[in-house]
Amino acid sequence: MIHYVKPGETLAQIARDFRIPYQQLLAANPVLTNPDVLYIGQPIQIPGYPDPSTLPYRIDISLKKRTLQLYQNNVLQKTYPIAVGRILHGTPIGSYIVLNKAPNPGGPFGTMWMSLSKEHYGIHGTNDPSSIGKAVSRGCIRMQNRDVEELASIIPIGTLVNIRM
Questions:
Q1: 124 labelled catalytic
Q2: What architecture is the 2-45 domain classified under in CATH?
Q3: For this structure, is 89 an active site residue?
Q4: What is the pLDDT of residues 51-97, one digit of tens each?
Q5: Fewest CB within 10 A of the end CB: N or C in the chain?
Q6: Considering the chain, what percentage of its residues have pLDDT values greater than 90?
Q7: Average pLDDT of 150-162?
Q8: Which is the catalytic residue, given 3, 89, 120, 124?
Q9: Which fold has domain 52-164?
């Protein structure tokens, strides 16, 4: 998959965001003459993940509406209610992919965790179902446990996640 450098990103941060070793990322991008100098929009090859445009699913998240919409082949399949980040811990706006799925992560993350390609952020369940529909998380997307389990059973690794206001 190709990632396009965003303002302020470094190769080290991109490696952390995609949970891959820095040296592996460097090896996948031999055209980088100076890995310490990146430019906005520069294509970076991310090894090990499919091109999201080749997958039938995508997720669109509206922070304002507090909804997560699942699309298959550009047709809306389902809309789920969510909780989002609170003041000082806002949910990051942008385009990411689902990197992995971890059932029963423990703690406040409910029965499923799906990492996003932004370090420390994910889509997960909750041990506090009354929080859904509110701005209460530390930036992650919270869902009812049954909803996040259903979503995780449908989407493949590499699914595009667009987060907007």
A1: yes
A2: Roll (3.10)
A3: no
A4: 999 999 999 999 999 999 999 999 999 999 999 999 899 999 999 99
A5: C
A6: 97
A7: 98
A8: 124
A9: L,D-transpeptidase catalytic domain-like (2.40.440)
